[in-house]
């Protein structure tokens, strides 16, 4: 599944084309993705102006003038591609937004939804949703996105300063599940996924196997741990978003891949490699937790 930084990179890539644009035509090339498209899907989108393009956790939210809000999820293999025109027939150029750790498809066979839009200045673009495994979806929210059943139970965002040590400790207090499992609980922190939880735990020097509630116990040590973990979560997400944003600018108007944070992974997918933390001397190991790979260093993550 794409994680929050990748979805945010996609949002930032779509934003200049979609925000303020009017949808002139929508084509759905099949009746469903993971779920059937909403009733009157094409009719309710066509002619509408997109007032804002947002993100909540791993969901994109397209706000339309007069409603509704279109909620989009990329699923396991979904991606957006933009085709632009300088006044002739589209496309003059094509750009895929958000190349992920697992390569995304560019095959037109898997182009399932096509949005034709025109900007306030008259520039025409085509935004194409491609999804070979069809595990993504598009649904309407009639009110605020947070009221939709898909988003209503989501926890705090791991961006900005809202997530601090005190809040994190309150979320984890008394929990006996492994720390990594607790951090992946979307009801606590929204948008964290397998890759960045592994990276954040390494930065904070905490084992993915320890009980989650141990960082919320009374005392100075636990406070230091919760503060360090909150800072690690925020910084690893911010660094990944910044890396994606930089690559997005580098690859504007191309059909190339966007950079991914993989070049900066400290532990993820680095089994058997030396730990890069200064003075550690340990080695990165891979274990399986709840059916998912966990990468960590048992020497410096306690």
How do you describe this structure in short?
This protein has helices at residues 4-18, 41-45, 165-172, 179-183, 194-204, 220-250, and strands at 22-28, 50-56, 59-64, 69-73, 79-84, 93-97, 111-118, 124-130, 137-141, 284-289, 292-297. It is an alpha+beta fold.
In words, what does this structure look like?
It is a single chain. The chain has 302 residues and is of the alpha+beta class. It folds into two domains: 4-147, Alpha-Beta Barrel (N-terminal domain of MutM-like DNA repair proteins), CATH 3.20.190.10; 165-297, Helicase, Ruva Protein, domain 3 (Orthogonal Bundle), CATH 1.10.8.50. It is built from six helices and eleven strands. The strands form three sheets. The chain has a five-stranded antiparallel β-sheet with strand order 1-7-8-5-6. The chain has a four-stranded antiparallel β-sheet with strand order 2-3-4-9. Strands 10-11 form a two-stranded antiparallel ribbon. The longest helix is centred in the last third of the chain and has 31 residues, at 220-250. The radius of gyration is 21 Å and the shape is elongated. The two termini are 28 Å apart. Mean pLDDT is 89; it is low at 87-93 and 248-260.
CATH class of the largest domain: Alpha Beta
- Given as residue ranges, the uncertain stretches (5+ residues, pLDDT < 50) are 87-93, 248-260
Strand content: 15-25%
Overall, the morphology is: elongated
Secondary-structure element order, N to C: HEHEEEEEEEEHHHHEE
């Amino acid at each position: 599944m794409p994680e929050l930084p990748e979805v945010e990179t996609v949002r930032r890539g779509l934003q200049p084309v979609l925000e303020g644009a009017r949808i002139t035509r929508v084509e759905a090339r099949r009746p469903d993705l993971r779920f059937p498209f909403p009733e009157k899907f094409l009719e309710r989108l066509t002619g509408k102006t997109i007032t804002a393009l947002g993100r909540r956790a791993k969901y994109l939210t397209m706000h339309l003038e007069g409603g509704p809000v279109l909620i989009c999820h990329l699923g396991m293999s979904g991606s957006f591609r933009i085709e632009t025109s300088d006044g002739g027939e589209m496309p003059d150029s094509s750009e895929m937004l958000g190349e992920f750790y697992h390569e995304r498809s560019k095959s037109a066979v898997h182009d399932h939804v096509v949005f034709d839009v025109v900007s306030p200045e008259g520039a025409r673009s085509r935004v194409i949703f491609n999804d070979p495994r069809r595990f993504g979806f598009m649904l309407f929210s009639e009110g605020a996105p947070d009221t939709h059943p898909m988003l209503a139970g989501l926890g705090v965002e791991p961006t900005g300063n809202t997530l601090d040590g005190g809040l994190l400790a309150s979320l984890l207090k008394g929990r006996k599940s492994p720390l990594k499992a607790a951090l992946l609980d979307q009801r606590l922190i929204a948008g964290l996924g397998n890759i960045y939880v592994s990276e954040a735990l390494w930065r904070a020097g905490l084992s993915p196997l320890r009980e989650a509630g141990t960082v919320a116990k009374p005392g100075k040590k636990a406070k230091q741990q919760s503060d360090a973990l909150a800072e690690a979560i925020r910084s690893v997400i911010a660094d990944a978003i910044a890396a994606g944003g930089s690559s997005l600018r580098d690859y504007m108007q191309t059909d190339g891949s966007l950079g991914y944070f993989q070049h900066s992974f400290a532990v993820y997918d680095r089994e058997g490699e030396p730990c890069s933390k200064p003075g550690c001397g340990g080695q990165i190991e891979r274990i399986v937790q709840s059916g998912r790979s966990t990468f960590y260093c048992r020497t410096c993550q306690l």
